[in-house]
Amino acid sequence: MEDESIDGLQRVILNERARLLRFLAARGAGDDAEDVLHDLWQRVAGASGPPVAEPIAYLFRAAENLMRDRRRSAVSRGRRQMEWHETSTTLEEEPVGERMLIARERVKQAEAVLAGLGARADRVFRLYRLEGRGQAEIARDLGVSLSSVEKDLQKAYRALAELKGQFDAE
């Protein structure tokens, strides 16, 4: 049973699908070959006009053009993002002067919050986040259960999140 909503060029795409995918892959589409073929399908579905004299050649040329358009868009997008990043990073964002003092004060406040949780929770957080040690290793070295390490980390994260909320409110 054939789907009657599929027109001539869409039928050609279905018949030539494997060849079109190989063609696109050979021209560098890689993993995007399926996406390019889908874009081609959408374009053909929305197009109206006179019949195409050589549909296979037309579809291969259209597929290659779509691939080029996608590549150009990706290059342009990358360039725009790079330019945006370069223009949005200013000297004001670097911690100098007053910003450095504020940053130091906030570090002191974070250290005080961690110290206020108790010696073990403070140590667990520092070993895990600052030294990069695993939770099981920390539990073994401190002689506590893995569950205790997890609870200490949760307590530390919760306390630091509250502190961050205070910083954001300032």
Protein architecture, described:
The protein has 170 residues and is mainly alpha-helical. 76% of the residues lie in helices and 0% in strands. α1 runs antiparallel to α2, α5 crosses α7 and α6 crosses α7.
Overall number of strands = 0
Shape: elongated
The ordered string of helix (H) and strand (E) elements is HHHHHHH
Largest β sheet strand count, sense and barrel closure: none
Mean pLDDT: 85
Number of separate helices? 7
Estimate percent helicity.
Answer: over 70%
Task: Explain briefly what this protein structure is.
The chain is mostly helical and 170 residues long.
Identify the notable features of this structure and list them briefly.
170 residues, mainly alpha, 7 helices
Question: Helices, strands, pairings?
Answer:
Blueprint: H1 8-26, H2 33-46, H3 55-88, H4 98-116, H5 119-130, H6 135-142, H7 146-169
Helix pairs in contact: 1-2, 1-3, 2-3, 4-7, 5-7, 6-7
